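Hey all, quick one. A colleague (J.T.) asked me to put the 5-amino-5-deoxy-1-O-phosphono-D-mannitol job into the tracker so the inputs and the structure tokens live in one place instead of scattered across chat threads. No bug as far as I know, just bookkeeping. Sequence used:
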Amino acid sequence: DKNGYEHYMLKEIHEQPHSIGDTFRGRISIDKTKIFLGGIIDVMPKLTQAKRIIIIACGTSWHAGLVGEYLFEEYARIPVEVEYASEFRYRNPIITPDDVIIAISQSGETADTLAAIKMAKKQGATIIGICNVVGSSIPRETHAGVYTHAGIEIGVASTKAFTSQVTVLTMMAFMIGRKRGTLYDELYKKLIHELTLVPEKIDIILKSENYIKGIAEMYKDATNALYLGRGCLFPVALEGALKLKEISYIHAEGYPAAEMKHGPIALIDQNMPVCVIATKDKSYEKIVSNIQEVKARNGIVIAIVTKGDETINNLANHVIEVPDCHESIAPLLTVIPLQIMSYYIALMRGCNVDQPRNLAKSVTVE
Ligand code: M6R
């Protein structure tokens, strides 16, 4: 049931204030001072003492894992590696019983992810799942896990499953950080509070849908697009590019903004839309200069900015505003306009948004 929406993807984009709320419901105390993830309580000693966390996933779930890497390292101070399941399983990786593996999968059925965790389990690692489909194969293979509770996702392009995965990883990073003492209580409480504000902030972003549709109209005939971000917004750039390519068949690439000058900058001309995720955080000044570099080469800049940003407003061709937030929360907000833009570009190009060519919702073959 599309609930009145033209496509499941659009419905699922709009569900995100609710689905994210469902992800943290019952897991954050009413007074917003504690996070409790029941599914991983038994493995908390393993997690807090882990020498290393290896996150394995594919596609969009792998992008969520990259966001997790930034958050775990920042707040829990545990080294993290993020691996494509398909590469990890075939390269004879070094795994020890001190390693904790976190497998992320919406469907819980992705063949490569499943095979990778079976292999790591044999070598003695502790396996934690972050899955959406209850009772699917991956949760049955893991020692512990957290369901995302995003609700059934039908659109092949993952939207609400991604934001729920990121929400779980954010909660885990904060909870482990607090337990390890790397995150002090005052900041911990502030971050929890920030997380609980996400649904209402996404509601605000969704109100810009028509404005974003207008931008989509202008660039629907592009043949290439570049997405740039820094820090935990670099994975959002990758995700924005994947959303565009999988449903609109426009070639798109995501890059860490500073890597641009090591190659991709050669592509920039007056026909190249460049989406820059540039909310206010510790690398803000740097990303402003990246925007100037694109403009100096006549590129078209579509910037996702913090509400009220005058500096970027004066530089970019278009700005899409998101409400002010703590930088750890920004991935959850900034991905929303990118999902909406991809949706409308695909729609205007006459593509089958919910069922893009050559793709399946769960990839159960390797
Ligand atoms: O079910 P999974 O999360 O394991 O699926 C992984 C990828 O196949 C999936 O995220 C794919 O990249 C999506 N089509 C992205 O929108």
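Adding what we noticed when we looked at it: The chain is about 45% helix and 15% strand. The beta strands are 52-57, 80-84, 99-105, 126-131, 144-147, 224-229, 251-256, 273-277, 300-306, 318-322.
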